[in-house]
Design a protein that fits this description.
The structure is a single chain. The protein is an alpha+beta fold and about 140 residues long. It has four helices and eight strands; from the N terminus they run E-E-H-E-E-H-E-E-E-H-H-E. A hairpin with a 4-residue loop joins strand 5 and strand 6 (about 105-110).
Amino acid sequence: MMVEIASHKPLAMTSDHPTNDHQTKRGGNKLESIELARKIVNAIADKKGSNIILLDLRSISLLADYFVICSGESERQVKAIVNEIAEKIKEEGIRPLHIEGDPSSGWVLVDYGSIIVHVFSPIMRGYYQLEKLWSDATVVVRMQ
């Protein structure tokens, strides 16, 4: 957001709150949702997350543009995946709007507004079956 002040020079407004348009620290350029989603997928792959899927929800839901769903084989790996995502995306000047859940519960949700990330233990992923629930979504990426 730009604001004019008395000298008529534009002043970039800053906020401690993240925005859904993914404004980055590099000159105010916007990171597109798909670019952010791909960075999240790469962060998960870096921590050896398994069964990674990126779903495009834009044509079927207003909830988010994309879901990223993956599994971590242990509580420790789920935590490492969530931390890696947060660290890599923070490098872009973007912080999550909300993080819910705990690695010990088997499901952590990371909300970036237009992208929602679900990191599951295999048991909880099988129980909730989000891919089945969102089966009308277009699969953008699937990594085993």
